[in-house]
Amino acid sequence: MECDGVIHNNIVSRNSPERQSPRRAPKTGPATLPSRVFRSHSEACSRRQPTVARAPTLADRYSREVPNSSPSQGARKRAGIVVNPTKVDDQDKLRRECTKAAKEAGWDEPLWLETTLEDPGVGQAHQAVSAGCDIVFAAGGDGTVRLVGSALTGTDIPLGLMPQGTGNLLARNLGVSVDGSAAQNFARSLVGHDTRIDVGRVHATFDDGSAKNDTFLIMAGFGLDGDIMDSTSEGLKKRVGWMAYPLAGIKYFTERPERMLASFDDGAPRTKKTTTLLVGNFGRLTGGVKLMPDATGNDGWFDAVWLSADGPLQWGALTRQILTKSRRNTNRVERVRARRVEARAMGRERAVELDGDVIGQARDVSMWIDSDALVVRIADPKDSKLSDLRSRLPGPFGQDFKGLPAKAKKSST
After folding, report:
1. Taking all residues of the chain, what is their mean pLDDT, rounded to a whole number?
2. Same domain flag for 130 and 225
3. Please, are residues 293 and 327 in contact by the beta-carbon 8 Å criterion?
4. Based on the domain organization, do 220 and 298 belong to the same domain?
5. Rounded-to-10 torsion of CA 301, 315, 240, 172
6. pTM > 0.85
7. CATH value at residue 162
8. Are 177 and 91 in contact (CB under 8 A)?
């Protein structure tokens, strides 16, 4: 499957298991949503990939070591840095600092690649891979990280994080410091740990007959959250940071929920008045909010949240339920775990956002999990005094990060 110039071969079958429990083999079943688009797309997926017989446990999946992408002992190593110039104030300074850090670690000078409007990260990441880089960093916001990560998916070459955006959600969910300098994260990651995470795949269809395949690392949304992301200006984000999103969302509090048809794995499709449908690989947002408390990013499952609010009073109740991390399902907040999610907007087309990037207003969306598809380099938290301090603080004041439930391998790079 092709996505923005990236060939994606690891597609979960249409007959992927329905979640029963994390330790029991789920059932399989036929297609659910009565959609010709969904059926044809799913059948194509099934032909490419055999049925998954059993949901692997964490012990199964993490007994495998992350393949070492480093060159042979004694060979010089090199990092690639894909930088979004709109997110970095002083590129020359950052480049000097990274070059110095690389030389001090015994690495070659980093390959420096800037994103453009025409190619915001995928092509640069492919170029770094072709040049033989042993790790490829994304220096930018969530969009840059998503695109670089999508290009590295399936390559076993680690994605390094140099957070420079507003949300920096992958870094937050993995416990990577978002408070230190990008150069510090670069230096620490050269001697960090590699771990695997799942990747979300998306197939969206539009009323004009077109379709799009894409990828997300953190979270996908179908509905109002896409409208909010689309209406949040870069200027506001620079002025007030992540608070720009709730500020931009205030004007939508009076918007009525619209009917949406959705199915989860092989469950029966259901119709519900929906504000937005969020499908998470990870669940932590900015401000310490854990929208999906059980989402780990490496368990082979999506954590979906089906939200419905009509008016300020219901928005208040919905917000309270999320902030208190309540797992109780209500008419306003319904939580579902699944490997595959399919949804159709029954009224007008709805916005689709992937890690904060809006890819368009779609009629149908199909999402499935690609397990263990991406290797991510995580700096040792002991290298960051600030991260160590924040990890001791509760709730929104700290990172609350205990690490992925995996045996991460110490990198030799």
Report:
1. 78
2. no
3. yes
4. yes
5. -20
6. no
7. 3.40.50.10330
8. no
